[in-house]
Amino acid sequence: MAKDNFVEQIADIDTDFPQWYTDVVVKTKLVDYGPVKGTMVIRPYGYAIWENIQREMDARFKAAGIENAYFPLLIPMSFMTREAEHVEGFAPEVAVVTHAGGEKLAEPLCIRPTSETIIGSMYSKWIQSYRDLPVLMNQWANVMRWEKTTRPFLRTSEFLWQEGHTVHASGEEAMEMTLKMLAVYEEFACTCLAMPVLTGRKTEKEKFAGAVATFGMEAMMHDGKSLQAGTTHYLGQNFAKAFDIKFLDKDGALKYGYTTSFGVSTRLIGAIIMTHGDKRGLVMPPVVAPVQAVIVPIAAKKEGVLQACRALKEKLSAAGVRVALDDSENSPGWKFNEWEMKGVPVRIELGPRDLEAGKCLLFRRDTLEKTECALDGAEGAVRALLGDISETMYERAKARMDARIVRAETLEELLAGVEGGNFVRAGWCGCRECEDKVKEFAQATARVLDGENTSDKCIVCGKKAESTVVFARAY
Amino acid sequence: MAKDNFVEQIADIDTDFPQWYTDVVVKTKLVDYGPVKGTMVIRPYGYAIWENIQREMDARFKAAGIENAYFPLLIPMSFMTREAEHVEGFAPEVAVVTHAGGEKLAEPLCIRPTSETIIGSMYSKWIQSYRDLPVLMNQWANVMRWEKTTRPFLRTSEFLWQEGHTVHASGEEAMEMTLKMLAVYEEFACTCLAMPVLTGRKTEKEKFAGAVATFGMEAMMHDGKSLQAGTTHYLGQNFAKAFDIKFLDKDGALKYGYTTSFGVSTRLIGAIIMTHGDKRGLVMPPVVAPVQAVIVPIAAKKEGVLQACRALKEKLSAAGVRVALDDSENSPGWKFNEWEMKGVPVRIELGPRDLEAGKCLLFRRDTLEKTECALDGAEGAVRALLGDISETMYERAKARMDARIVRAETLEELLAGVEGGNFVRAGWCGCRECEDKVKEFAQATARVLDGENTSDKCIVCGKKAESTVVFARAY
Question: Could B121 and A96 be called an inter-chain contact, meaning their C-beta atoms sit closer than 8 Å?
């Protein structure tokens, strides 16, 4: 469905990263703007990434014993107010249904911004005994948070996500689950998105509304800013008390359960784009790439070329490679640009001379290197190359992130650090005032707590530091 | 997570089918009622069926060249009014968002009851030339239709579905697509749900609001009522004109495209339940059954029994069978009842004597027959049995439906027919008044047109019949 027979230009990644992002997401047809402000349409090339993310993540959930379910979109407004911090955090962002079926509703309903409340109300009905625990569920769903400033994938009024919700008999077990899912997310980011992350606990200011503790994974984008790519929440008994989730324990006593929740969203697609993209456009990690290899025939009209390309396509497809054959009438040069912009990990060129020599040419998008490969057994070579691309992309992103985590002893150093596109490690006393001061002075926020560090001073007040914080500007 | 250590009773299927349905869906934990009237929670055992439906259907869409995408949940109210019949049909059922982000919205937004309008608005932006056609997209999404009377899976204010939306350069091609998708649905129903269907065109009265022609597949439920299990719509240029979907044709002229849409929903789960269920509860078709085989150890504490059960489970799982091992402390009798109610196609019993003889016992849920099977190669036997169960279930449902399609020459015969739990074939002149008369007299509606039949008389007015109609009472 390509409309124009030329490769459209994208802004320069280093001088105008925001425009580069907008150009890339629209021109590679990942996404388009919906008619209602702040909404996005996820086009087939973008949605295919999400399908791959879902498949990989869902397999990990099922391996962890988590079952999928589906809970209603609309939540009675009264549910939101039962947990005090929760309503404070989410009420300003909800979209409200006031009329339905031609009538005004007795109680306004809000479109779920997240589902702790409605799921909590069902859990309270389903759980009675310790034998019913743990409950481990997940749902793949759309949620809505009315945002003032929006950008495709990164922040839109509606987005797609998964939200896991579990109930446990003890706080220890719930905390263990919270950390286990954080580890699942981290492993997923590394393995499937070739994306290194920093993980850790969030500060009180940055935690989920209603949680006892939130843990996050943060990824470094091309411009050195941080993107929160997934969070897991230890909710303690907050929601159990608000929704009366009680169980009869082995000792005969009626006790409140301990709950957790955790989620990743279509934001991950934005993270992929901004972690790996380069001046030519997207660079897709092989595991979630909609197309892993594209075959471009050279001198396609010469005898046997197209036939050989089709045979190669069949062979790759049978070997489990997601492969496309571009047999359109565009020139090879045009096709090279187009598929490079779309970030397809491997391009396979095959022309009459290659055919005669029984080989083809492999171009890898990550390093822009070309190698020759025998047609016989090409499927093995392509699979191996895809594995190598995954590793190389991860190592490169990891090296960049590691090189751009700096240490600061003063607010001025911290400011210089984030302005230079770095994550900045600094001591923090633990008080909200000092955290706010950093935000005001350097437009940077605490991304994760980096473990206890009592030998340090707070970068703001100079008092003894309670922990080391990674500060950064963030999406 | 079983709460009670006994099998709960369900109403008698033949004397109180509605109560049987409610009992079965709730007690097998397929579904529960949500806090907002008319909403449902799809529990893991129900959602697993939907996941299996999705996987099978999605593979068929992809094979037909259809790509998945995702369009926004909220549609500007003004979009709905652009197609006159469409707004008339859907406006009374929409849920309306009037406030969001703490403010009153300038224009009310409706939660999609279906997405022809918003997708049409995007297609008009994306399509310019005949080279962009056909456009073949689908989305898996939640939709909302505010209904007065609701029942889990059959009619709920929110439900999950897929909606396909295509654009073509000619009316012929669009009609071909409409009929092709009807055939895909029919093949899916037979193969995956073991459910025979009648397919055909709908009357003007029963067609989709905004369509030129609607085609449906109807399935016969246990009580002889009909359930519309899927529809495909030829929309002509109605939505193309309303949303300005135009393309520059090969001849240089600017033309409106021709569109189609088609959908199946979580209603299919209700159809499965009411087609195959019996007095013991659910009978799940093997292709979409969440659990295809359950292993029940007999005298589980005897040496080697549990070990052998676990080994068998591994073997079946490796052979691609979705298998569960019930090693709970309930008695075998309790387990038999429980898994029969849940409709698991095959139960495998394995005790010390079986083990000694190197065999196990297979119980098939559809015919309630037991056979012996050697442990060595049991995976092959179970797979073959699952295939046989699929076929037997289909044949049985087909024979029942065929036996219960009767012919009527008078309204009294038609009434007697539907009251007896039959589909009734009758001649129809084609006018709305006569169709309304049948509804009034027999509480039956025209399910599908059965092809032209000019030799017949209209069952109401006695004029020459334009076609034969299958009338039935319907869900």
Answer: no
Is A109 in Cβ contact with B72 (below 8 Å)?
no
Whether B293-387 and B405-472 share one fold: the answer is no
Range B293-387: architecture per CATH: 3-Layer(aba) Sandwich (3.40)
Q: Do A135 and B72 touch (CB under 8 A)?
A: no
What distance in Å separates the CA atoms of residue A157 and residue B221, rounded to the nearest whole number? Answer: 42
Window A:50-69, CB contacts with B under 8 Å: 50-51, 67-69
B173-185: average pLDDT: 98
Which residue does chain B place closest to A95, by CA atoms?
B100
Closest CA to B201 of B456, B432, B386, B450: B450
Architecture of domain A405-472: 2-Layer Sandwich (3.30)
CB neighbour list of residue B30: distance below 8 Å, 6 or more residues apart: B24, B42, B43, B45, B46, B49, B152, B153, B269, B273, B282
Q: Do residues A157 and A143 lie in contact, with contact meaning Cβ atoms separated by under 8 Å?
A: no
> In this complex, do A95 and B118 lie within 8 Å of one another by their Cβ atoms?
no
CATH number belonging to domain A293-400: 3.40.50.800
Residue B1 predicted with pLDDT over 60: no
pLDDT for res A6: 45
β strands within B270-419, DSSP E: 293-297, 323-325, 346-350, 359-364, 370-374, 405-407
Q: Which residues of chain A from 315 to 344 reach within 8 Å of chain B, CB to CB?
A: none
pLDDT confidence of residue A452: 66
For chain B, state the CA radius of gyration. Answer: 25
Task: Tell me B145's DSSP state.
Answer: -
For residue B27, the chain A residue with the least C-alpha distance is A126
- Does position B68 have pLDDT exceeding 70, yes or no? yes
Q: Where are chain B's structural domains?
A: 17-276, 293-387, 405-472
CB-CB neighbors (< 8 A) of B118 in chain A: 34-35
- Quote the pLDDT of residue B7: 52
Taking the Cβ of residue B394 and every Cβ of chain A, the question of whether any pair is shorter than 8 Å is answered with no
The closest of A95, A96, A78 to A86, measured between CA atoms, is A78
- CB contact at 8 A, B331 and B7: no
Q: Are B202 and B233 in contact (CB under 8 A)?
A: no
Hey, of B67, B73, B103, B247, which one would you mutate to test binding to chain A, going by the most A CBs within 10 A of its CB? B73
Of the candidates B47, B93, B108, the beta carbon closest to that of A101 is on B93
Summary mean pLDDT of chain B: 95
Question: φ and ψ at B427, to 5 degrees?
Answer: -75, 150
Write the CB contacts of B71 (distance below 8 Å, at least 6 apart in sequence). Answer: A34, A41, B112, B115, B118, B119, B122, B139, B141
Confidence (pTM) = 0.96
Six token digits for residue A343: 């970030």
Assign domain B17-276 to its CATH architecture. 2-Layer Sandwich (3.30)
Cβ contact, residue pair A41, B109, below 8 Å: no
**Residues 6+ away with beta carbon under 8 Å from B462:** none
Pick B73's closest partner by Cβ from A75, A142, A147: A142
Cβ atoms within 10 Å of B367's Cβ, excluding its own: 13
DSSP B405: E
B434 touches chain A (CB under 8 A): no
